[in-house]
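Components:
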Amino acid sequence: MNSSKTILSETQAISQAVANLPKTNPFTLSQEYFELFSINLLRTIQQSEQKALSTPENYFSTFPSKLLEKIKEENSTAELEELSPILAGMQKQNPFYVPENYFATFNATPKKEQTIIRSVFSYKRIIRYAAAACITGLLIISYTYNQHNATSPLAAQQKNSASDLSLESIIGYLDEVDDVKDDNENDTPITAENNLLVDINQETIRQVLQEIPENDIKQFIDQTGSTEYKSLN
Amino acid sequence: MNPQHSEDEELVAGFKEPKTKESAFTSIVKKYQERIYWQIRRLVINHEDANDVMQNVFIKAWNGLDNFRAESQLFTWLYRIAVNESLSFLDQQKKRSNISIDDSGLHLEEKLQSEKDFDSNKAVWKLQLAIQQLPEKQRIVFNLRYFEEMGYEEMSKILETSVGALKASYHHAVKKIEDYILNH
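Structure:
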C-alpha cells in the first residue's frame, strides 16, 4: 500500500477540492455481518456440495434412456388399448430363440469381402455366341432356300395349274369326296353303343321269337319265371 | 519475503490439506472479507447485492484455491475476482432492467438515494454521487486509490492495465469529481 500522504499529495496536485473531502464511509452495516459471514458462507458451500452428491449412482448417465423408455412404453400401451383391448391384454412374450451367448459373442466387424475376378475372355461365353451364330445361320439358309423354291419354275407351274381349275370341276370333285364319305359311314359296324340307338318294335321281336324253338323258350321261362312270353302270344 | 505473503502461503497450503481445509478457508475469509466487501459495496451500492457478490467471490475462491499458484498474491487474486464479479453483476442488472450504458450512473444514483441516512447536502454523499457519474474503469481506479490507498503496481496486477493508464484514469476521475462537486 502506498502511504496516505503520497496519495493525498497526488490528489491535491490534481484537485484541492477533492483532496479536502472527508473520507468517512457513509454506508451502514450491522456489526455482526462480518462475524457471521464466514460461518454462513461455509454452510452455503457445504449445502451446495451435499446437493451435488445427493443423486443416485449413474443417475444422469442413465436418465435419458430411462425417460425415453418410459415415454415409449406409455404411448404404445395406450395406443394398443385403444385399438384392440384384447391384444393389449395379451402377454408380450418373444417366441423366437437366440443361440446361447449370441449377443455376448456377437462380432460386429464385417467379414472381408472376397473380390471375384472375372475373366474378360470366357470360353463359355464364346461357345454361346458361336451356337447362337450357327442357329441364326441355319435359319437364314432355310429361309433363303424356301424363298428360292417358291420362285422356281416347278412351283410356278403348280401355282398356275391351281388357278386354271374351273368352279364346276372343283364342285364335282367335292361331290365325289362326299359320296366316298357316305359309303364309309354305312360300313361302320354296329357296336353295343350303336345298337342301343336301333329302333326295335314289337313286330321285330315277335319275328325273332318265332325263329327260336319253343322248347328253348319254355326252358328260359321256367328258369326266369317271366310272364312276358304269354302276353306276347 | 513479505510476512503477509508467507502467511497467505501457509493458509493456502492449509486449504489444500483435507483436515485443515475449512479452518484455513475461514481464516482467509476473515482476513480479507472487510476489504473485499467495501470494494464491492462501493461499486454495487446496495448491501444485499454486495452480500450476493461477496458470496460468489468466496465460493469461486473455494473452488479455485486448489489450483491457486503462489506466483500472485492471494489478496490480489481475491480482488481480481471481486472486481470481475462486481462488473458482471452490474452488467446483468443493466440487461435485466434494460438500462443503457449512459444511464447506468443514474441507476446507481437512485440506489444511493435509497440508502439509509442519505443526504445529498452532506459532502460524503455528494462524493458518492460524483463517483457514480464516472465510467466503470475510472470508478474502480478511483475507489482503489482514494479509499483503499492501493499502489499503482498492485492495481495494475488486479486490473491488468498499465501503470500509466491507471494514473491517467485516476487523474481524469479526480477532475470529473471536482467538476461535479463544484457544480452541484
